[in-house]
Amino acid sequence: MRRLLIALATTMGLFASPVAAEPREDTSDSEVCEGCKALLELAISNPRRKEDRARDVYRHPGETLAFFRVQPNMKVGEYAPGGGWYSRLLGLYLGKQGNLVGLFFNPVSGAFDEKRQAGIRADAARFPQDVSGWTGIPADRFAALTLDAVPEAEKGSYDRILIIRMMHNLFRWNIADSEIKAMREMLKPGGMIGIVDHRAKPDAAFAAADGSTGYVRQADVIKFMEVNGFDLVDQSEVNANPKDSTDWPNGVWTLPPSYALKDQDRAKYAAVGESDRMTLLFRKRT
Fold first, then answer.
1. 198 lies in a domain?
2. Is residue 104 part of a domain?
3. Residue 220: CB atoms within 10 Å
4. FRET pair for 176, CA 20 to 30 Å: which of 39, 148, 212, 255?
5. pLDDT band at residue 22 using 50, 70 and 90 as cut-offs
6. CATH code, domain with 138
7. 3-state DSSP call for residue 69?
């Protein structure tokens, strides 16, 4: 993966003058979903999200999901759900009409030791019950799988897959190629992937933008997705944060909510807020 990005950056001139690709004009999926906005607002304001709501000011979940054109009757894969911040909202939004499926790392991709492999499988097995507990919706409304064992019936069945603050890890663990390939096979023809991730400065050195600090260059993500069979549909600044200089001592994890330096200069980092983030929507190329 690292070699691929270096080659792309060299041949496409990304090191010298990174330029974001222009979104392709797209109207095939832009019709207004009647009632979607109201249902999304109901999910966002649900009392079960009271502990999560403090992060809304940084993560703009309503605007982000609307930008990704997520509708409540869709089949949506959430890649690497982690602590469940987005899972709780997606479960509330999709749980009655749609399908939320947790998509977990391929445990045997080479990035994980045996203990972590077992943990990934356990997380996937527990995901439906976790979302049920968070939302009050029966667990059989939710599902999960690991990307080493995608059933044939799941391929070509997803309307959307969301990759939230995870591309940088795929790059630094050298598993982006295989994971994106698996997800591409799961999408319907014309299905879309929505990506949110920590954004490096356009002219950042590769060593500071290869995912190891948590940041990646937007132009590199766009080019990577294009090489892997996707077209850029649109890009948004809804999750931008101009206060983020991106050069923190412990990378992006210096900022909230991680606060890697704990109480050291905590007020300073709290004033910055969460990271500057790209928000990109890609369509599977047929």
1. yes
2. yes
3. 25
4. 255
5. low
6. 3.40.50.150
7. coil
